[in-house]
Amino acid sequence: MAIHDQGYRRYGGRREQRGTAWTVIALAGLRAIVRRRAFLALLLLAWILFIVRAVQFYAAANFPQAAFLAPSASTFRQFLEQQSFWVFIITVWVGSGLIADDRRTNALQLYLSKPLTRAEYVAGKAAILGTLLLFITWVPAILLLLVQIVFAGNLTFLRQNLFLFPAITIFSFVEVLMTTVVMLALSSLSRSRLFVGILYTALIFFSQALFGVLVAVTGGTMIAWISYPANLTQIGDAIFRLPLHYETPWPVALIMIAALVLASVATLAWRVRGVEVVA
Amino acid sequence: MMAEPAADAPVVRLDGVSVAYGAKLALRDVTVAFRPGAVGLLGPNGAGKSTLIKALLGFVTPSAGRMQVLGLDVTEAPLEIRSRIGYMPEMDAYIAGMNAVTFVAYCGELAGLPGADAMQRAHEVLQYVGLGEARYRRVETYSTGMRQRIKLAQALVHDPDLLFLDEPTNGMDPKGRDEMLALIHDLAHGRGLNLILSSHVLPDVEATCDHVVVLDQGRVATEGAIEQLRGTRGRVFELRVKGEPERFVPVLQAAGMECRATDEDVMRVFVPPDATARTLFGLAAREGIQVRHLRPSTPTLEDVFVRALGEEDADAAAHDAASARAPESPSA
Known about the structure:
The structure holds two protein chains of two kinds. Chain A has helices spanning 21-34, 37-46, 48-62, 73-95, 100-104, 108-111, 118-136, 138-152, 156-160, 164-187, 193-218, 228-239, 250-271. By secondary structure, chain A is mainly α. The relative contact order of chain A is 0.12. Chain B is α/β, with parallel strands linked by helices. Chain B folds into two domains: 12-226, Rossmann fold, CATH 3.40.50.300; 234-298, Alpha-Beta Plaits (2-Layer Sandwich). Chain B has helices spanning 49-57, 78-83, 100-110, 115-128, 144-156, 174-190, 202-208, 226-231, 245-254, 277-287, 301-325, and strands at residues 12-21, 24-34, 38-42, 64-69, 72-73, 85-88, 162-166, 194-199, 211-216, 219-225, 235-241, 258-261, 267-271, 291-297.
């Protein structure tokens, strides 16, 4: 374009098909996050446990003295449980501002004046957090399975534990889905990411503390469904075919998780609007 | 295949549209058509201007009526409509953590432009709105005037057929305001874009628009070409009298004239088409009032606006009175 002709011009190029706007939101969000060095450092830290487990698998496969370190199905369950700490940190760091920041800067009306639906907007935001959480749960767990095969030099462990691949996948996706949707719902409730972070932390710790008190009062763990993390633990144990931690039946835990997800979706449908109507 | 609408077909059409926020009616049975070109949406604060735009964007759902934008029904094709319009909101709005060119390109991509095209358009549009030098600065660091410009840029980046501009000069200094109005004028008259400019600042509308729709209390008070509205309702005189003008006002009103005080000691008198300056002098002589200044004036949009609101108030009062007298309808 000539330098002298920098006025407004009509656009004659092609336009993308509708329904792809959520990918634009997701990619832009991911690019913005991974550009931060502090966040990259955090991601590296979240992979330390993977390295520790990989060393464990190597030792078990190559040194007879370390045979007691040989992995089992519960090793993968433990790994995912331990990763929950990083899931929490990354959820608070990344997730709390996903919608709250847009509400603070009135960006929702910009988004929703473009040809995208509210569901696409939420899907784009969910994809940002969901991708990062899968990167520290599902991806390292599946890689660990591959690492085990490589270090052992045979498929014996995999053949004996064929359910591990679907178990890791199902549990990771359930955990990521629940965490993502709940955090987005909380993020849509406020304009302050700090407040959202506090709210999410309170939800986890308060429900767990309440559960602890009720266990002390009732002397049993049937009330575990009241705790946000305990429901996930029950589901994880059931998926990995391990004895349940608590007395609550796993279908009850599953119902609680489903209810929490539905409540979060309803909150998002209520809060994600182009205009805040105070009637 | 859908037929192309005629060139002079309305770009926006509302038919009996009502919008309620709880018990409060923000739009009341609005029926109006916005012609192609630049149309001003005028009205005092709370008249329903922003609500009308938000209803057209699908942000609020009308309780009654139908709306069409660019020949498409708002409820049936909201995404198609939004791909062809640009919206510059009244409130400060941006996406945190982005510099200007990334932000505008991002908005272009959201509107369906391929990434490379969106980035190129973002550079062009930022240059056009006067932010070329500041395009790599984060939007959070922008002044109020710059944020108004970037809101215009994000509304333009995907080359819309229709622009909704909601109070585009809010918070701008006089120089920035003139530049923004020049941009809007150029878009409408130089680049052929249709736009609806919502404002309560009459000179802004007068400087940029050819047509106007005046809203008051959720109703259409008047509409039409600005030139026509200025000219069809008699003439206007600037009048200053010696002593107390309040004494002369009832006399003028009794003669079918309207008076409006201005900031100075001159009042603007709207006279019927059959009256002249001689009529005014005659009335003053009859009442023994000395005329110090009488000059024919050009009717301004403000005159149209004030008179429209006055008539609307009178109509509303008459309507309310009639409603009070009428027996209750069972189907109401």
